[in-house]
Each structure stands twice: as structure tokens, then as C-alpha cells.
């Protein structure tokens, strides 16, 4: 178990090697978060998957070439160059299949992924039998290995990550148009093909530098998870890019730190798990599109609807009781509510409980109910809004009086004060306060 | 030299290839080609946990663990898609990378005690399958041939019995639902078949063959025909062809470059890719070259219809 001083040493990046690993994975996370956002919006998240698998033959072939030229085959830039070339070949194949056949994106990606990876494994196995060569390190590209990084590797990763981030920011507007409406972009004269290729080039760059530290399978997560998590927090592109870069960077940093503290955990896997945890938190709790806030706001809306339906039902009962005279707040039998709306007894009990909590009801003898003074005012207001909306629909939207109740039912809950005032003006001047216009249709038992 | 060993390797490879190609056709038609890739990566934790619990590399628990993990992948993907409004590709990518990472960590933890190397799990070793035999009715046949044969039969059984339902729900899930065939049930049934096939196949021959055979032969068939039944048959034929030529290639090709040998599974994937390439170029009605020829040979279309005087 690492003690406090170890933790501090890693967190403050005091150890030189740790500093390299942590900084490079953080930069990688930021770059991948930015580039991946565009991929996600273009609905091509799995492109990174196909691409990263397609780099394997290039790694093997670059290794074989270096050996045959008399080197030891372990130069990272050369291996990554090979990876880039075969990755680009993979993308080209993908685009060719898509453009010359009726096969769809997913088939093209699956084809490139499986065939290139198969070729990669076959050629890796071949070059491993080369005399005098130890290709054992090559397998680390599949699962990732941060421990073997040296300073030049770090510089390469940092440089490529910085350039990729910079290009994504410079071409922000162009990528934005491309992602949201490529047809429009083409019609406006934007070079969509160039932009698409540029975007895929960025993806290739990020994937290739990710191979060394997290491995070719887990780099996919770097491109997909942070942007998808960021999508839950906002509906706008710029904040999404920032959040995505933040989540990517945080996963890279935290993951590398945790794996530096517990050496038996592979860094790539820990980084992916941190990103997945951040995704889970975002999906459940993000205020804009998270699952729990959505459920809560739906429940709140349902409560509001129930409350307004209840108050209006009571007001209509009181109207029936009053006949021609003015509507007064009297007590009424509990059963009368069932005639107004198809509530189940348990639903109604829930609604009444909430009404009591809001002081809309007064204590009454059992079997009868009576609104409180504020409750009665609220009931009048709710009914008034409902009828204003109904009248508006009949006069302006040509809705038949028999149907209007249902339509109004759906909209009335979100009528704001402003809208109500506008409705009043449209329908013949502001009504005196508290006046409830008569219903524009028959209020009958349902 | 071709030995009985090679025959068995080709038989195992063909059985596995056809077993994958059949459900693969429906994956391709449902735009879910990447599911096979996702499942085959995501089963890693299932294998590791089964190993932790039983402490052995026995087949049955490993198989169950992996199949369960495969199903969970399909399930989680569906949930994230539905509840999070996330694109299918992204949901799939998150689920399988996360499960793969968990599997990798579990396996690293176990690595001290046992040889459960992710490379071995993912690549399998089709070359070694003839060594592990079981006796059936007096004959020694490789266990992998038996396993893949059974899986092939199971797939054939389900796809024959539910052919009409799968066909309908692949092309028009809403209509299938309206007619009373639950497309949700069929979806998960297909996912189960894919997961079971994937696991059974790659436990014996490695995941590369599985991913390639789920996608490439069906894609080849789709270039050659528009008829589902013909598509299934062509996909199966392309799969067998890939297995045979792939193994031949694994013996012959390394010699050209002065190497000793290579993996059959990688070469089978490559062979299937080359078969796809042939179909891509020469398919009777969709091939690039065929279309080019037809355009060149076609008589020039007159700009205006000549007056035939029938008016």
C-alpha cells in the first residue's frame, strides 16, 4: 500500500518518469477529447475503433523494415510512422467501400477492422520469427505500456497532441458546420471533403500516439467516452468541447497517477475505467441531459399537472353546485371528484396528500372536502387559464369545441404569466382579476 | 506438406467460419456489424471472473462467463442508447472498452498464478486444435470441431425455425412489432446467438477469425445478391473458401518473404478480405469493373427518341 509521501510524490510529479507518463497521458486525453467530440457529432465514434486496429500491420511492417536495414526495430517514431501509413490505408479503404458500394458505414468499418487486424496479427507473427530480433515489445502496442517511455517518446506525444488540439480549435467553425449539416456546408462552398480528411487525419494522429501509452484497443475509449460524457452536460458545442477535453485530461491524469501508485495495474486499463466512471456520473447526474435530473423533472411536471387537474376539477364541481349563482367555496363530497377525471383511489389519495401539504385543503368531516382560501384562489386561476387557452384554440386554431378540452389539457400546465396576459388581450381585453370566464364547451361528467 | 493435421484445421476453420457468417448476415443487415467486435473484446472479464471462481481453465464455466459478458454488452449498449440518448456506435464503444479494461486488470492480477494471457485468449490457436481431441463414436475428432459443429447446428436451427421472423424484423422492425413478432425479443435472441457463437468460436480458434467471419462474408454476399436466402448461402460459401485458402496461405505465403510461418487465423481474415475484393471488383451488377465495362460497352443513348411514326 503506498503511503502518503508516495502519493504526494506522484501527485506533485516529483518523480521524473512519472512526470513524463502523467503529463503525456493528460495531453493525450485533452487532444482525444477534442477530436473525439467531432467524431461523436458526426456519428462516427467507432471510426477510431477501425482505425486503431488498422494500425497493427503498419507497426509490424515498420519493424520488419527496420530489422532488415540493420536496426533493432524499436524506434518509436518509425513504428508510429508505419502505424500512420497503414491507418491511412485503412481509412482510404473504408471511404472507398462506402462510396463505391451500397454497403453502409458500419460494414465498411467492420471490414477494415477485421481484415487489417488479421493481417497485422499474421505479419506480427511472421516478423517475430526474424533472426536476431525480439519483437516482444510490439505486443505492448495492443495493450499499452507506459513504463517503457523515454523523454523523446514523451516529446513526440506532447507535440502531436498539442498540434491536434490546436488544429481542432483553429478549424472549430468549419468542423461545426460539417458535423451538424454537411449538405449545407457543401452547398455553402465549404471544402467538406478536405475537412473530412483533416478530421480523420487528426483522429489518426491521436490514435497513433495513444498506441504507445494506452494500447490500440483502449485508445478507442479515449476517443469515445469523454465526448459522450460531455454531451450530457450541455447542448452547445463550445462548452461540450471544453468539458470533453477536461474529462479526457482528467481521466488521463487520474488514471496515470493511480497506476503509478499501484504498479500492478496497467495504466491504459485504469485510464479507461476512470473515463468510464466519469461517463457514468455524467449520464446519471448531469443537470442538462442526465438520467436522474430528467426523471426528477418529469416527476415534478407530473405532480404539477396532477395538482392543476385536481384544482380545476374542484372548481368545476363548485360551479355545478352554484348553478347560476356566483361560485363560492363550499364543501363537496369526495366521490364527486371521480366523476370529473378517471383517477384511481390511490392516485387521488396521493394528490390529496400533496394538496394538504400545500395548504390547499381545509379540515373537514370525513367523506367531504373543502378548499382553503388560497386553494380556492389557485383553483380559480388554473381554471381561468385553461378556459382562456380553450377559447384561444377555438377562435384562432379552429379546433372543434368538443376536442378543445383535451388539447388545452396538454398545454395549460406550461402557460406563463406573460402568455396568459397575451391571451387575455387577444380574447377581448384583460378580464378583471379572479373572474373565471364560463367554459366555451359543455362541462360534463366524463 | 499437407497432413491430416491441416485437414482438421481447415475443417475447424470452416465450421467456425460458417457458424459466424450466418448470424453475421443479420448483423450486417441490421447495421450492427460492429457488435461482433464489441462482444469479442468485452467477454474478457467474463473469462477472467469464471477463472477466478472455478480456479481452472475448464471450458464450461469459461464459456458461461463469456457468454454472459457478451449478453451484458448487448444489454448495456441498449440501455445507454435508450436512457442516455447516445448514438449506438458510441454506446457500444464505451461498453466494450470498459469491459475490456476490467478484464485486462483482472487478468493482470491473475497473471502471477496462471497462464491466462490476453493474447492467447484473443488470438486463440487454431493450429493447435487437432491436438485436443475427444472420442465420438470411436473416432478421435478435435474438440474444437465438435464445439463449432454444435454451434453451427444451433445457429442453423434457430435461423431456420425463425427465418421469417428474423427476416421481417431485420428489414422492418416496426411492421414486425405490429404483426405481433416482438422485434425486441428477436434482437436479444440474435445477440445471444452472436455472443454464444463468438465465445465458442474464439475459445477454440481466436477472436480474429470470429470478427472477420461475422462481417466480411456477409458483406461479400451483399455485394452479389439482393435475396436474403441467397445471401446466407453465398456468405457460408465465402466463409468456407476463406478458411481453406487462408490456411493454404498461412503455409505458403510466409515462404515468399523468407519467413517460417504465420498464424492461420490472421491469414483467414486476409483471405476473406481478398474474396471481398473480388466481389467488389467483379460483382455482376455492382462490381466496380463490371459497371465500368457495361458503361463502355453500352450503346450510346440517343439524345432524343427517334420518331417511330406510331402517333
Task: Describe it.
The complex is a heterodimer of chains A (446) and B (311). With 446 residues, chain A is mostly helical. Chain A folds into two domains: 4-289, ABC transporter involved in vitamin B12 uptake, BtuC; 294-426, Arc Repressor Mutant, subunit A, CATH 1.10.10.10. Helix content of chain A is 71%, strand content 2%. Chain A has a three-stranded antiparallel beta sheet. In chain A, helix 2 (16-41) runs antiparallel to helix 11, helix 4 crosses helix 5 and helix 8 (151-170) packs antiparallel against helix 11 (192-214). Chain A is elongated, with a radius of gyration of 33 Å. The mean pLDDT of chain A is 82. Chain B has 311 residues and is an all-alpha fold. Chain B has one domain (4-294): ABC transporter involved in vitamin B12 uptake, BtuC. Helix content of chain B is 75%, strand content 3%. Chain B has helices at residues 4-29, 34-42, 44-54, 59-84, 88-110, 118-123, 143-161, 163-171, 173-178, 183-205, 207-224, 228-256, 264-282, 288-297; strands at residues 133-136, 139-142. A two-stranded antiparallel sheet of chain B has the order 1-2. In chain B, a hairpin with a 2-residue loop joins strand 1 and strand 2. The longest helix of chain B has 29 residues, at 228-256. The radius of gyration of chain B is 22 Å and the shape is globular. The interface between A and B is large, with 60 and 62 residues.
Amino acid at each position: 500500500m503506498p503511503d502518503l509521501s508516495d502519493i504526494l510524490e506522484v501527485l506533485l510529479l516529483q518523480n521524473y518518469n512519472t512526470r513524463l507518463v502523467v503529463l503525456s497521458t493528460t495531453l493525450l486525453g485533452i487532444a482525444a477529447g477534442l477530436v473525439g467530440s467531432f467524431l461523436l457529432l458526426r456519428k462516427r465514434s467507432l471510426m477510431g475503433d477501425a482505425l486503431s486496429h488498422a494500425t497493427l500491420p503498419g507497426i509490424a511492417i515498420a519493424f520488419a523494415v527496420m530489422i532488415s536495414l540493420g536496426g533493432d526495430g524499436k524506434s518509436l517514431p518509425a513504428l508510429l510512422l508505419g502505424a500512420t501509413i497503414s491507418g491511412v490505408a485503412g481509412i482510404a479503404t473504408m471511404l472507398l467501400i462506402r462510396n463505391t458500394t451500397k454497403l453502409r458505414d458500419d460494414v465498411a468499418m467492420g471490414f477494415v477492422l477485421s481484415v487489417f487486424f488479421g493481417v497485422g496479427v499474421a505479419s506480427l507473427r511472421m516478423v517475430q520469427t526474424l533472426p536476431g530480433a525480439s519483437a516482444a515489445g510490439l505486443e505492448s502496442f495492443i495493450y499499452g505500456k507506459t513504463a517503457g517511455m523515454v523523454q523523446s517518446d514523451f516529446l513526440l506525444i506532447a507535440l502531436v497532441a498539442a498540434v491536434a488540439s490546436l488544429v481542432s480549435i483553429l478549424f472549430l467553425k468549419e468542423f461545426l458546420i460539417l458535423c451538424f449539416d454537411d449538405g449545407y456546408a457543401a452547398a455553402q462552398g465549404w471544402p467538406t471533403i478536405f475537412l473530412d480528411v483533416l478530421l480523420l487525419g487528426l483522429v489518426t494522429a491521436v490514435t497513433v500516439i495513444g498506441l504507445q501509452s494506452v494500447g490500440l484497443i483502449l485508445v478507442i475509449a479515449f476517443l469515445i467516452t469523454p465526448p459522450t460524457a460531455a454531451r450530457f452536460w450541455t447542448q452547445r458545442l463550445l462548452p461540450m468541447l471544453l468539458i470533453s477535453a477536461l474529462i479526457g485530461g482528467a481521466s488521463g491524469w487520474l488514471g496515470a497517477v493511480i497506476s503509478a501508485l499501484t504498479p500492478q495495474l496497467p495504466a491504459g486499463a485504469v485510464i479507461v475505467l476512470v473515463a468510464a466512471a466519469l461517463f457514468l456520473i455524467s449520464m446519471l447526474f448531469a443537470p442538462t441531459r442526465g438520467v436522474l435530473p430528467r426523471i426528477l423533472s418529469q416527476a415534478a411536471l407530473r405532480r404539477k399537472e396532477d395538482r392543476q387537474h385536481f384544482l380545476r376539477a374542484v372548481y368545476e364541481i363548485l360551479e355545478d353546485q352554484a348553478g347560476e349563482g356566483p361560485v363560492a367555496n363550499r364543501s363537496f363530497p369526495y366521490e364527486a371528484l371521480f366523476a370529473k377525471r378517471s383517477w384511481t383511489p390511490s392516485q387521488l389519495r396521493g394528490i390529496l396528500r400533496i394538496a394538504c401539504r400545500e395548504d390547499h385543503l381545509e379540515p373537514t368531516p370525513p367523506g367531504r372536502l373543502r378548499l382553503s382560501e388560497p386553494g380556492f384562489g389557485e383553483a380559480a386561476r388554473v381554471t381561468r387559464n385553461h378556459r382562456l387557452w380553450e377559447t384561444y384554440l377555438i377562435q384562432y386554431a379552429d379546433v372543434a369545441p368538443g376536442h378543445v378540452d383535451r388539447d388545452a389539457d396538454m398545454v395549460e400546465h406550461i402557460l406563463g404569466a406573460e402568455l396568459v396576459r397575451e391571451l387575455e388581450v387577444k380574447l377581448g381585453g384583460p378580464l378583471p382579476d379572479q373572474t373565471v370566464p364560463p367554459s366555451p364547451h359543455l362541462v360534463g361528467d366524463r | 506438406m499437407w497432413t491430416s493435421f491441416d485437414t482438421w484445421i481447415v475443417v475447424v476453420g470452416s465450421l467456425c467460419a460458417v457458424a459466424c457468417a450466418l448470424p453475421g448476415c443479420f448483423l450486417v443487415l441490421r447495421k450492427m456489424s460492429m457488435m461482433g467486435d464489441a462482444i469479442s473484446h468485452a467477454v474478457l472479464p467474463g473469462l477472467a471472473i469464471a477463472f477466478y471462481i472455478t480456479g481452472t481453465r475448464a471450458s464450461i464455466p469459461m464459456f458461461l462467463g463469456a457468454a454472459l459478458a457478451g449478453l451484458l454488452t448487448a444489454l448495456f449498449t441498449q440501455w445507454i442508447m435508450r436512457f442516455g440518448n447516445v448514438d449506438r456506435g458510441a454506446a457500444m464503444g464505451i461498453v466494450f472498452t470498459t469491459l475490456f479494461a476490467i478484464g485486462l486488470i483482472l487478468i493482470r492480477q491473475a497473471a502471477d498464478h496462471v497462464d491466462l494471457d490476453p493474447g492467447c485468449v484473443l488470438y486463440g490457436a487454431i493450429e493447435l486444435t487437432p491436438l485436443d481431441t475427444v472420442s465420438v463414436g470411436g473416432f478421435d475428432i478435435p474438440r474444437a470441431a465438435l464445439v463449432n459443429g454444435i454451434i453451427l447446428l444451433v445457429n442453423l436451427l434457430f435461423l431456420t425455425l425463425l427465418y421469417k421472423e428474423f427476416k421481417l424484423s431485420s428489414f422492418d422492425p416496426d411492421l414486425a412489432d405490429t404483426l405481433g413478432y416482438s422485434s425486441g425479443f428477436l434482437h436479444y435472441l440474435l445477440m445471444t446467438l452472436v455472443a454464444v457463437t463468438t465465445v465458442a468460436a474464439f475459445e477454440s480458434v481466436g477472436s480474429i477469425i470470429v470478427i472477420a467471419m461475422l462481417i466480411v462474408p456477409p458483406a461479400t454476399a451483399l455485394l452479389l445478391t439482393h435475396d436474403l436466402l441467397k445471401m446466407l448461402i453465398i456468405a457460408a460459401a465465402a466463409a468456407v473458401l476463406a478458411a481453406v485458402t487462408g490456411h493454404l496461405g498461412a503455409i505458403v505465403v510466409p515462404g515468399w518473404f523468407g519467413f517460417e510461418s504465420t498464424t492461420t487465423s490472421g491469414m483467414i481474415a486476409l483471405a476473406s478480405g481478398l474474396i471481398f475484393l473480388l466481389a467488389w471488383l467483379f460483382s455482376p451488377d455492382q462490381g466496380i469493373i463490371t459497371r465500368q465495362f457495361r458503361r463502355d460497352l453500352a450503346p450510346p443513348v440517343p439524345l432524343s427518341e427517334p420518331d417511330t411514326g406510331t402517333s
